[in-house]
Amino acid sequence: xxxxxxxxxxxxxxxxxxxxxxxxxxxxxxxxxxxxxxxxxxxxxxxxxxxxxxxxxxxxxxxxxxxxxxxxxxxxxxxxxxxxxxxxxxxxxxxxxxxxxxxxxxxxxxxxxxxxxxxxxxxxxxxxxxxxxxxxxxxxxxxxxxxxxxxxxxxxxxxxxxxxxxxxxxxxxxxxxxxxxxxxxxxxxxxxxxxxxxxxxxxxxxxxxxxxxxxxxxxxxxxxxxxxxxxxxxxxxxx
Amino acid sequence: xxxxxxxxxxxxxxxxxxxxxxxxxxxxxxxxxxxxxxxxxxxxxxxxxxxxxxxxxxxxxxxxxxxxxxxxxxxxxxxxxxxxxxxxxxxxxxxxxxxxxxxxxxxxxxxxxxxxxxxxxxxxxxxxxxxxxxxxxxxxxxxxxxxxxxxxxxxxxxxxxxxxxxxxxxxxxxxxxxxxxxxxxxxxxxxxxxxxxxxxxxxxxxxxxxxxxxxxxxxxxxxxxxxxxxxxxxxxxxxxxxxxxxxxxxxxxxxxxxxxxxxxxxxxxxxxxxxxxxxxxxxxxxxxxxxxxxxxxxxxxxxxxxxxxxxxxxxxxxxxxxxxxxxxxxxxxxxxxxxxxxxxxxxxxxxxxxxxxxxxxxxxxxxxxxxxxxxxxxxxxxxxxxxxxxxxxxxxxxxxxxxxxxxxxxxxxxxxxxxxxxxxxxxxxxxxxxxxxxxxxxxxxxxxxxxxxxx
Lengths: 239, 455
What we know:
A: about 240 residues, D-amino Acid Aminotransferase, Chain A, domain 1, about 35% helix, globular, B: Rossmann fold, 3 domains
């Protein structure tokens, strides 16, 4: 087994196999284990713990529902952004706890930056491929993405950035600061190696958004879709 | 596995030859190879007998000579037995023309066939294919010779999953004067796949360009193919069919939705320096251009024309393809004008496109092409030659080709392809300068050089 795929990572995936996808806090734990950067966060069912964590890291924070029934959190009203104090956090907690399948709230430091999507898919013909694009909820509207076969080399990442229509946004556009390209490159290269190791286990992964600033790139949300239990191969394309 | 036996056999057995039906595919294959190729050909049918005075062998292992290539055109249910016999006889390679395998639900039959061949290390192409066309050496297509259009021997290898597409491409290659080194239709590609042929052709001395028509790769087969193509020292061109989105499988991640089969295919090919052709016209133009030039260019095109309209259309086509048409400096324009004939000198427009007008002479085209070949602002010249202009002669093709051999800057030409202009066209083609019958095609030939990684 490749060194990158340690037992803890395997355990996380095995525990999620029946559900078919990995809960956000678990996915982030997995990526952190693999050396990728995620925001500070706390997964809890207790409002008091949520508040004490928020006080410790400082407001504003983000609160997100954790539920095995909710794959798309925004669509289910499962995300509260820009929470600026204890009261607002308690209110958000109360609201999120009514969502179907509630399994706690993920309280997280609020991170700003350019929203990118970094994704992976195990393609039937080509194996693991990596996607980079303009992220956020509008990702399927803009469809501004670059694709490459994994594993990626540094020059692949450069070409991927250049291949985006919005590449100027990453390089600093009209006075805005550029994102940290070495950080982004490191994230993509490391992520692509992880995906190579996970080839037999996952179907696709969304890191969306990845928040990029001149200083750092943080995985603000993550979704791992697992390969259906018992299926050895990626689905053969229809038609 | 030795693939030479496919393309350069000396002895060929044709299994399935019919004694009662002379239009049987095996009979067509037998006759054309027996009569028109420098081969020893042996007809095979379990019933034996005599065909056109020649002995029909009952099985391949009965043939006294060592058989290089066996062509199997018998019914699917007999093919495994025939292959087993070929293995016993030490046959070098086989082409299984017969259908009735995975494509019609008999995957089991196909798997058993592969197992027999693997065990015997006997490479076979197919099943469900036309097989091999190797100019002046062998032709396993079951198409009567008089119905086929055969391209000249040349240096483009054509590999196609579909036999029909391959035959069509050969017609188009012949029409455009593009020669082929080897061609194969691989059908169900049960054993030998695109990557195997790519690896063979990469080392084949007669092949300079390798072009594929692909319907789809098996699991992870695409990965093997692009990694092999990246290592291949020759340009690799791929035309992929089936680009429309496959069904509406439920997709639960953004990445799975955004990275559709075709998006992945195109991106991964480009990543590995494979030139993807969008359609048959591109496949043809790219093959033609890359069979002449090994140069990778940035795509700064100098256009020389005898008509302003042709120049304008070429500029649009260049822009649509990401090629630039840089302006020519005043100083360069003045130098070229000084060299022009009295008839063209006062009226030629030399900004790029360089319009030498309907009064242009051969010498004017040669002078303009020579000058642009030495101007670093351009890395490729597009010549729009209108043979009906009175000052142009049939010698111009050969003369402009000499400009290329002297200066080394790639030239691509447009000439309307009709019989009466053939001498002009051949003046280019026989000297290694590609000619298209359309402006768009000529621009595609320049684009191929831009998209091809340095080889």
